[in-house]
Each structure stands twice: as structure tokens, then as C-alpha cells.
Write a structure and sequence with these properties.
With 117 residues, the chain is mainly beta. Helices cover 15% and strands 38% of the residues.
């Protein structure tokens, strides 16, 4: 029976939690280690897991299309005020590095100097 340790990233579904598991691998040619992450859907019978909890999952028989793991233990309970943001929300909040000029500014520059083209 395989065991994995990860963090709960989503617990919205009934009796299901999504667990993010990080592991390190070695590059076959360069020999450098790099970090790989993968998400697993795990069965949570009593809906005990919350976002941010650190859990241990174990491999089990297929429960549904995506669930092949079940939650064995909750190692560390997260504080209740933790909210993980989606990647899209982080992108929306970040400011663009290069600001595009307004359409009116581009047209006014073209009209003022027609000989430079």
C-alpha cells in the first residue's frame, strides 16, 4: 500500500478532497534535483478535511472516475481563516509590467507626424 503526504487544496465536493503532493526527482542527464507537484482526488468519508490541512493519503480500490486514494490521517489542521487563491485571481490582482498606450494616444501621434512614416 502506497502512502503520500500532501496539503488539501480543495474540499468543495461531497466526500472528496483534492490533495497537492510535492516530490523531488533527479534529472537523468544533469543529475540536478527538481520539484514536481501532482494533484490527487482522495475520498474523505466524513468531510473532515478543510483547505490547508496536511494529510496522509493511501492508495485504495477505484471509488469513482478520479478517486483512487483515501485520506488516512489529518496530520496538521489549518487555521480556519486560510483561503487559497486560484491562479486566475492572482493574475487578475497583479499589475501588468508593460502598460499599453491608449488608442487615442496612438492615433494622435500618427496624425501629428505623417512624414515620419
Amino acid at each position: 500500500m502506497r502512502l503520500k503526504r500532501g496539503i488539501v487544496t480543495s474540499a468543495k465536493s461531497n466526500k472528496t478532497a483534492v490533495i497537492l503532493v510535492h516530490s523531488e526527482k533527479m534529472h537523468p542527464v544533469l543529475g540536478k534535483s527538481y520539484r514536481v507537484s501532482k494533484k490527487f482526488h482522495a475520498h474523505d468519508e466524513n468531510n473532515e478535511c478543510k483547505i490547508g490541512d496536511e494529510v496522509v493519503i493511501s492508495e485504495t480500490r477505484p471509488i469513482s472516475k478520479l478517486k483512487r486514494w483515501k485520506i488516512d490521517k489529518i496530520l496538521v489542521k489549518a487555521a480556519e481563516d486560510i483561503k487559497l487563491k486560484d491562479d486566475l485571481e492572482i493574475i487578475k490582482e497583479s499589475k501588468p509590467v508593460i502598460e499599453k498606450p491608449e488608442v487615442d494616444e496612438v492615433e494622435s501621434k500618427d496624425k501629428s507626424n505623417p512624414e515620419e512614416k
